[in-house]
Amino acid sequence: MATSSGGGSGSGGGGTYSYRNGATHSHKSSSKLDTHTHKPLSLNSSSNSSSKNHVKSKSLGPSSTTQRRNSTTSKDHHPSVPGRVRVAVRLRPRNAEESVADADFADCVELQPELKRLKLRKNNWDADTYAFDEVLTEFASQKRVYEVVARPVVESVLDGYNGTIMAYGQTGTGKTYTLGRLGEEDTAARGIMVRSMEDILADVSLETDSVSVSYLQLYMESIQDLLDPANDNITIVEDPRTGDVSLPGASLVEIRDQQSFVELLRLGEVHRFAANTKLNTESSRSHAILMVHVRRSIKGRDAGHSSENGNHPHSVKSLKPPVVRKGKLVVVDLAGSERIDKSGSEGHTLEEAKSINLSLSALGKCINALAENSAHVPFRDSKLTRLLRDSFGGTARTSLVITIGPSPKHRGETASTIMFGQRAMKVENMVKLKEEFDYKSLARKLDVELDKLIMEHERQQKAFEDEIERMATEAQHRLSEAERNYIDLLEKEKSKYEKDYMDSIRKLEDQLAMNQRKNEDSHIKSRAEKETLLRKAAEGEVNHLKIQVSELKMSEASRKSEILKVHKMLEEEVHQKEKLEREIAILQSQLLQLSLESDQTRHQFERDGLEKDVSSVDSLTSQVKHQQQASGNGEKPSIAKLFEQVGLQKILSLLEAEDADVRIHAVKVVANLAAEEANQGKIVEAGGLTSLLRLLQSSQDETIHRVAAGAIANLAMNETNQELIMSQGGISLLSMTAASAEDPQTLRMVAGAIANLCGNDKLQSKLRGEGGIKALLGMVRCRHPDVHAQVARGIANFAKCESRASSLGTKSARSFLIEDGALAWIVQNANNEASSIRRHIELALCHLAQHETNARDMINGGALWELVRISRDCSREDIKTLAHRTLVSSPTFQAEMRRMRISY
Ligand code: ADP
Ligand code: MG
């Protein structure tokens, strides 16, 4: 039982393949591994790393596990995740010699790739077990080895980190095979250098990025340029500020394509061989170092993760600062790890031998110091350790592949190689497991199968790509041939069409010439025809002008008649205007009348006396109301205003107007004016009364009679006017009207007028003489109480005047009323229901009874009984008293009452 020991101190390594969270590390040992990866390093891996070259491996073996881990850790990437040197072990298959020599012996190692373990046999029954980050069997393909060992490092270099890939192992175990195979004869055999460059070139943009390489050999602490053999003993320059190591003397060749890189590697190989021949040594004694400088321009978006190797210490402050990322990949094919003193056959002195192995032993010491976490790491002890200072304990991501052979003969060297690897992993206390797993052989078989398939696939892919290229070239050929044919054809077509075109042009020209000749012939003929046509046109023009002249004449005549018409129309207009003016005057008079009538009505209402109550004017009330309603005109100008506007003279003149309507309206206006006492004098002065009387005579119109009579009745309230009426034959005119009228209102007006005249003492006999009483009594034929009331008033007025005259002694004869036969009607109506009639009759009876001469007739006419009744029953006390006094003072009535035995 042995426990593997290994350095755990923080050698620089990429966080990308930190196995701390590795899914397959489920057993105890893995956690122990992790506890020793404690030295935090600032080496970053970027999750932005190009993923286009990630192999989407579907294999079940360790490589798929690796892929999974890589992607997981990429995602979990953090700027300051510590990494450690990652170590893979690769077993070379038995070579022909070994197959024969060791035929009967088992290999000194047994690999458990699925557990990532290696068993190193001590003897037939005992073995030590070691854990590695990757365990690559003798069947592992070059492609898988690249992906497991190198790709994560290459990707971080592309992201701007330094990376180291290193092979360590005994001479002949496959270091150069793993790193340096060019694979020109077999694509599947290509080594890590070639594949790394392929990935780098595929990821960079040659417009903005640059890739350049140096290829060096380190032998006996001397650095030689493999690209320029004359250039040896190149010095190492360290930047004291950043600690950066550079080789300014080494050739730096820019790489733009894979082919030139392979060419360069081959050249380097040739130079290395030549140099070693010259130095009388083997290439296995020297270290070959390939340095790839990748310089990339990064757009603003990626600038956040600048490298921490001091090249770009500033963080990005502006939005898109130009950022350059410099990654350096160092691939080191170390000299054989076997002890030089062991072989000792090369003829070197011990000192020489020490010098030959100085760098390698210094590397071992540094690894040990780092693994043990020593305070001092002797980097400065050798050129190799100076050059690789960044690779171990620095900022680089480092991947180490240790190569071993299967032969039990070299068990010691193999063991020391394994221990180197273990230290590099910094692993200690590796638990040695005794148990075996049943599926191990199956897993191994599957692994072998898988690797075969991978190789086959790669070969086929290459063949397929070649075929594609061949087909593309052929297609290109065919295309260009088809194009040529097409152009030829096109050319032929074109020339044919051109010929046809020229032919048709020629034909057309011939035809044109012929047509021109024909046209010249026909030209002469057509001239005569043209003149004839012109003449005809001129004649037509003349005719047309003649027609126009006659039309003009006609239109002149019609215009004259039109002027005459217009004249006539104008005259008519003048007539119309005059007529309208007249109508306006009528309308104005109507308006005036209406306003007067309304005024009158108002007055009528205001008056409360008996006399006024029965005055002829009140008869107009209904008419006024009626007309007001009809006109619908609520607003009336004042009488005075209308008077001024129109002028009394003009109104009176209209009484004689030809138009009946005008006369009617005029008479209404005058009647209304006459209702106003203030106007009466003016009307009479202006001859209004005469005109009104004349109207009674001249007009046959009932309305005119009615209204004129009304006006006369109003004027007849004045004593002077009463005389005037009488002197102008008014009574006979009123009598005539009374005789002919049918309308009760007309009769009422006439009766009113006569009644007024009856009240004039001076006119008694003239009135009676001209038939006034008879006319008055004649009107009772109309049964209308208004007429009767006026008649009664007239009788009362007349009786009063007579009684006054008799009391003055100017009249002694019998009453004209009795003489004209009024007594019968008086007695008849003495007790009339209508008070307006009854009162006047009662008064009339009292007045008649004043005169003793009338008594006998009154007794005979039955008036005594009425007087008795009045003296007893009359509601008006004054009339009652008058009747009583009259009865008492009259001897005739007294005698009669006694005779009749009326006690009084
Ligand atoms: P080193 O560089 O470690 O001295 P080489 O790479 O020169 O070893 O390998 C020694 C021999 O073994 C070479 O002929 C090489 O082709 C062969 N060899 C090494 N590794 C393998 C391998 N994995 N598969 C097949 N042949 C190998
Ligand atoms: Mg070699």
Describe the protein's architecture and organization:
By secondary structure, this protein is an alpha/beta fold. It has 33 helices and 14 strands. The strands form three sheets. Strands 1, 5, 6, 7, 8, 11, 12, 13 and 14 form a nine-stranded mixed beta sheet that branches. A three-stranded antiparallel beta sheet has the order 2-3-4, covered by helices on one side. Helix 12 runs antiparallel to helix 14 (619-631). The radius of gyration is 80 Å and the shape is elongated. The N and C termini lie far apart (188 Å). 42% of the residues are buried. The structure holds adenosine-5'-diphosphate and magnesium ion. Adenosine-5'-diphosphate is lined by residues 92-93, 95, 169, 171-177, 284, 336, 403. Adenosine-5'-diphosphate binds at residues 92-93, 95, 169, 171-177, 284, 336, 403.
Question: Which labels suit this protein?
Answer:
904 residues, alpha/beta, three-stranded antiparallel sheet, 33 helices, 14 strands, binds adenosine-5'-diphosphate, binds magnesium ion
Would you kindly provide a brief summary of this structure?
This protein has 904 residues and is α/β, with parallel strands linked by helices.
What proportion strand?
A: 5-15%
Task: Give the end-to-end Cα distance, rounded to a whole number of Å.
Answer: 188 Å
Give the fraction of residues assigned to helices: 55-70%
Q: Mean pLDDT across all residues, rounded?
A: 79
| Ligand set | adenosine-5'-diphosphate, magnesium ion
The class by helix and strand makeup works out as: alpha/beta
Question: Which residues form runs of ≥5 with pLDDT under 50?
Answer: 1-81, 300-320, 427-438, 607-637
Q: How large is the radius of gyration?
A: 80 Å
Largest sheet: 9 strands, mixed
Q: Which geometry do the CA atoms define?
A: elongated
Count of extended strands: 14
Number of helices: 33
